[in-house]
Every structure is written in C-alpha cells, then in structure tokens.
Amino acid sequence: MIVKDQEMKIRELEKNLQEKNIRPTAMRLLVLEALLDQEIAISLTDLEKEVEKSDRVTLFRTLKTFQENGLVHSIDDGTGAPKYALCEDGCKCELERDLHVHFHCKECNETICLPKYKIPEISLPQKFISEEANLVVKGICGKCAS
Predict the structure, then answer these.
(1) Banded model confidence at residue 131, pLDDT cuts 50, 70, 90
(2) Considering its fold, how many domains does the chain have in total?
(3) Which residues face 137 on adjacent strands?
(4) Is residue 94 predicted with pLDDT exceeding 80?
(5) Annotated binding site: which residue ranges?
(6) Which InterPro entries does the record associate with it (predicted)?
(7) Which residues belong to the annotated binding site for Zn(2+)?
(8) Which domain holds residue 108?
(9) 115: exposed, middle or buried (C-beta count within 10 Å: 0-12, 13-18, 19+)?
(10) What is the CATH number of the domain that holds 31?
(11) pLDDT-based confidence at residue 133 (cuts at 50, 70, 90)
C-alpha cells in the first residue's frame, strides 16, 4: 500500500510539473515535493537542508526553471537572500493580477505569502515600464505574538 501511495504521489508531482511545461526529472520532483511541504517561503540555503543529496547549483537552476515557468515566485524580504514560494493555482505572475503582499516576521525570520492581499495597481509615469513589484510588510507574525 505504501508503494502504491508513493507512486500516486510521484504521478501527481509529475503532472504538476508537466502542466507548467517543466520536464519532470528526479531532482525537480524532489524540489517540488519539498516546496509543497512548506507553509512559508524558503531560501536556497533552507532548501539545501530539506533536499538530501543535492548540490547548490542544481537547486538554484531548478528554482530558476520553476520561476521562469510560473511555478514559484521569488521574494526579496530584505534579509539578503531571496525566498521562494509556490505560486497559487492559475497564477501567471502578472503584475496587474497576481502579485500579493508578503509578511516577514522579525522574531522567527519567516516570510509568509498573503495571497488574499493583492498589491494594488500602481500608475507609473509615461514611458516607465514595470517588470516586477514587491511589497513586504515586516513585523511580528501571529505565531510569535502569542
């Protein structure tokens, strides 16, 4: 029964990657599985600890492939290392539609996606072209405030 459950899980992970036009290699499956297990955004260093038998370059390339294909988004939370989180279903990482607020807790150092809180549209001066936006609210999360 355990083997059958594992096979179903792998097929589901493969399907998730294929839907984003990402070839499902063993490493990509491991990284996706690790990201699915996270409730917070994760840095490359933290991902290294989660995925055994991996090297930093391969993990970085995997994350970049995921990002280029709209499976993950990166977050600059001001800590000096980008964090990565899975995109919501239906996300196309479009500035006007999909960007949301992130929260960085100063106590536990966790960064959390808040997809229900969208970044409002910002009207830029003529001939300015937006390529990315990032809104990070910093403070104390509910877990640490308790």
Answers:
(1) confident
(2) 1
(3) 103
(4) no
(5) 105, 108, 141, 144
(6) FUR (IPR002481), WH-like_DNA-bd_sf (IPR036388), WH_DNA-bd_sf (IPR036390)
(7) 105, 108, 141, 144
(8) 2-145
(9) middle
(10) 1.10.10.10
(11) confident
